[in-house]
Each structure stands twice: as C-alpha cells, then as structure tokens.
Design goal:
The chain is an alpha/beta fold. It folds into 4 domains: 112 residues, Beta Barrel (OB fold (Dihydrolipoamide Acetyltransferase, E2P)); 140 residues, 3-Layer(aba) Sandwich (Rossmann fold), CATH 3.40.50.2300; 95 residues; 79 residues, no CATH class. Helices cover 47% and strands 16% of the residues. The strands form 3 sheets. It has a 5-stranded mixed barrel. A hairpin with a 6-residue loop joins strand 1 and strand 2.
C-alpha cells in the first residue's frame, strides 16, 4: 500500500497518478482488513436492529466514539449472548469497510458480557421487564398435583441430575418418568429447553405416549455463565405459558435463575424437586390406615347411637297387636252401617222406579192412542177426503214413530233399572251373613229358630248352620263343656254381634 504514495509529485505538478473511486475504496478496504483482521473491542451496546433478513446491526460506543457493527445471520444463531442496548460487552471480530457508504464497520463473530457485573445488570434488567408483563405474578402459579401418574423431566441424559431424581422417586413413590434430553449449557441450551417444555404441553391426552401431569426442569450447579441459558427470555416465556405444573430445579440452593420466578414451584436442588413431586409411600399408607380406622370407629359409633335412639323411640310406641284395635272396630261399625244403608237405598230406588214406571203402563198408552184417534176422526170431518187421508197418514206415521221411540225409551229405562237392581242384589248377597259363613263361621239356632249367642244358652242348641247347609244337634251341650266355656277367658276381643237375619233363608228384598 505504501507504493501507492511513494511517487507523489510535488504540489502543483500534473504527473500525480489518478485513481477511480472504486480503486481508492478497495485500497482502503484492503489496508484496514489487513491491519485489523482480528480485534476484540470492549464497548457499550447502542442501537440494535434485527431486520427480517436475520442479520443484526448495532452500535458499539464509548464516551468519545461510535463504531458500526454487524453480525450475519449464521453468526447470530451461534451467539450465546445476544447484545442488548446499554449492555457492556466484549465483541470479537474483524474490521472492514462498506464502499457503498464510505464507512468502516466491525464484523462481529461473538459477543460476551464484560464480566459478571455486566451479566448481573443484564439479568436484573431482563427480570424487571418480564415482571412488568406479569409473567412472575403469584396468581399465575398452578397447584402441584399431590400424586402425579407421569412426570416429565427436562435435563441432560448423561448427568448425575437424572440419576438423583430417579433414585429419589424410587425411594419415595415410584412413578412413570418421561425424559426429554436437552443441552443444559451452551448456545443451544435455551432453545432446546423451551422446545422441550412446549412439546410436553403439546402432547395430547390419551395419546400413544402418556401426557405428563408434572414437569421438572433440572440442572446441577455452575457459574453464572453456565446457568445463563435458563435466564433467556424464550425459556422464561415457555415456563410461564406451560399448562402443565412445572418445578424448576436449576443449580444449587444459592443459585437463582429467571425460570425460578416463572415456574409454579422452585426447588433448591434436583433431589428436592423429586421430593416435592411425590409423597412418601409409607407415610401415605400409614395415613390411609389411620383414616380407615377412624372411619370404621365413626361408623360403629353412629350405628350404636342410632340403635339406642331406635330403642328409645320403641318404648313410647304402642304394642303392635294394639295398633289395629281401633281400625278393626271402625271396620265393624262401617260394616253394620253399610248393610243398613244398602237396604234403605234399595228400598228408595224401588219406590223411585215404581213412581217412574207408573206413567209407562199399557193402559195409559192405549188411552192416549184412543184419544188421539178420536181427535183425528174429529179433525177428518172438517177436511176433504184427500187432504184428510194424507193428513191422517202423516199423523199416523208420526204417531207410530213417537210410539216406537216411547217404547224403546221405556224398555231402555227398565233395563237400566233392572241392571242396577241386579248389582245391588249382588252387593247385598256379598255383604250378607252367608258370605261370612263361607269364611269359616257358623250360626247356632235354637228350637224356635232363634240365635244362640252365649255359652249360658248352649243347652238350647238345636241346629247349626254352615255355608253349605244346616246340621241338627241332638240334645244340648254337656255341663262340662258349658262350664269350661264359661270359665275360659277369651283370647281375642269378641267381634260385635251382627243383626238378626230377617228370616230362615233371608229371601229377596222385594
């Protein structure tokens, strides 16, 4: 490059070499890239721009100067820490120029925070921004299931963390465990952890692979840089959006990451996460046995109290053989009143029928027919023969129709009353004393056909009537039998006496 300026002509001469703009820009580009092919710059990140192309444009500045920086799409994907405005970083890359804008810029291959202080400042800034969105609110937290059937674990498959979790679950309460292997450190860690949480939530219930009831995101201890993947925004948002309850167990008890604030429960260690996930089976069995014993004792005591209560109530209730005494007496009284009412009702209906049928006698009908014929004859004398004959014919037809209707009505009314009398007679027979004889009773009569109703009159027994006939009794009852009958105490309350039948065979009411 020095050859370009060796043959400079004195000022005012005309033999100085001439360069095009492209040649001069290319020479400058070559010189800068040759002198600054690898540089590390400590600076504060200014404006950051990430267009749709995937390239990143940002500024590196201090209190006196600003350098434009750019990272291409492939370099951005490999960055473990992406620059944010106000962040103090150490950028590694190479200097170059942009001929189209006559400016130089730094092509950044990698960015790392400028010390732990910068990382903590970035962490605090990100924590405040996510908290302002409500991702850490307590009302977003879900209840951890008491005894999950399936537990999903997001961690490295080769570390000691998964072995500690499985061992602790096996000691407390063995459960089915689904492991989603991820990188827990490095530039791909955050994306893999977030993807594992999202994929666990996307598993359908009742599918070929059981959907977890609980998630555990776990990692062993490490430095701030080692745990930085769990501070990334993509991981925090995935944990906050999880529909499955999630326990975070990242690092040791003193380590704190942003996923701890977004998770439903934070465990100080992966082993503690396993203890939070399931109860101790032995303690649960003891608790169940205690509850079982309490339930059995409560059931026994409840039965005893109810049995005692039932006994107390039974003492104040009347004896079961006395409960039907009053209803039986009412039935007997109703039976007597029913027989009398039937007889009276039949008599009333008979009188009504006699009164109603009085106007339907044949003599009355014949008398009316004769009067009508005489009237027709009288009317026929005042009419000419043709009209008289026609009128006579019509009247005769009308009379015949009326007579027919009257006869049919009389027969129908007579048939209805006869049927009603038959039903009443059947009811009378059913309620009569002969139906009582069919149930095993008997009627004892004396020589004058009177009823024998007491043991003192047993010597007057002459005839016993059963349902199927009468049997004569020769002589009276023996003195021994009579005495026994008098002295024997009745075991059941005697039924009320029935009314004396009207005659030997009860006959017809009519």
């Amino acid at each position: 490059m020095s050859d370009l300026f060796e043959d400079e002509a004195p000022k005012g001469t005309s033999n100085a070499p001439e360069f095009s703009v492209s040649e001069l820009s290319g020479a400058v580009k070559k010189m800068i890239e040759g002198e600054f092919g690898f540089v590390r710059v400590r600076a504060e990140v200014g404006r950051v721009s990430l267009p749709r192309s995937g390239h990143m444009y940002f500024d590196l500045k201090d209190d006196k100067a600003v350098i434009n920086a750019v990272s291409w799409k492939g370099q951005v994907a490999k960055m473990e820490h992406r620059p944010e405005e106000g962040m103090e970083v150490i950028a590694t890359g190479r200097m170059t120029t942009f001929p189209g804008g006559s400016r130089y810029q730094l092509i950044v291959d990698n960015i790392e925070p400028a010390g732990a202080g910068a990382l903590m400042a970035l962490l605090e800034k990100r924590k405040k921004a996510l908290a302002a969105e409500g991702l850490f609110d307590a009302d977003r937290k879900q209840q951890i299931p008491y005894l999950p059937e399936v537990i999903g674990v997001v961690t490295s498959p080769s570390g000691a963390v998964i072995r500690d979790i499985l061992h602790r679950l096996r000691d407390r309460f063995p459960r089915h465990v689904l492991l989603w292997p991820v990188a827990v450190q490095g530039q791909n860690s955050a994306r893999e952890v977030a993807n594992a949480i999202e994929q666990f939530n996307a598993m359908p219930e009742g599918g070929p692979m059981p959907r977890p009831d609980l998630l555990i995101v776990a990692r062993g201890g490490g430095s701030v840089e080692d745990l930085w993947g769990f501070n990334e925004e993509i991981v925090v948002r995935a944990a906050a959006a999880s529909q499955i309850p999630l326990i975070s167990a990242v690092g040791h008890e003193t380590d704190t990451t942003l996923i701890d604030y977004a998770s439903d429960k934070r465990a100080p260690t992966p082993t503690a996460a396993a203890e939070m996930a399931v109860p101790v089976r032995r303690e649960l069995w003891v608790l169940i046995q205690e509850q079982k014993g309490r339930m059995a004792r409560g059931l026994t005591q409840g039965l005893q109290r109810r049995k005692q209560r039932l006994s107390d109530l039974a003492r104040v209730m009347p004896a079961k053989d006395r409960l039907l005494d009053v209803p039986r007496q009412r039935v007997d009284q109703a039976e007597v009143r029913l027989g009398q009412a039937l007889v009276m009702n039949v008599s009333n209906k008979r009188n009504q029928l006699t009164t109603s049928s009085a106007g339907l006698r044949v003599s009355v009908l014949n008398s009316r027919v004769e009067r009508g014929a005489e009237r027709l004859k009288a009317l026929s004398r005042t009419l000419d023969p043709a009209r008289a004959a026609d009128l006579m014919q019509r009247k005769h037809e009308q009379f015949a129709q009326l007579s027919d209707r009257l006869l049919r009505a009389a027969r129908a009314q007579e048939q209805q009353r006869r049927q009603r009398l038959d039903r009443l007679e059947a009811m009378r027979q059913a309620m009569g004393y002969k139906e009582t004889l069919k149930r095993g009773y008997a009627v004892i009569r004396d020589a004058s056909d009177g009823l024998v109703t007491s043991a003192a009159d047993a010597d007057k027994m002459f005839e016993v009537e059963f349902a199927d006939g009468r049997v004569a009794v020769a002589g009276g009852a023996s003195p021994v039998a009579s005495a026994t009958a008098k002295s024997e105490k009745p075991t059941a309350k005697p039924r009320p006496k029935k009314s004396k039948p009207a005659g030997p065979d009860q006959g017809s009411l009519f």
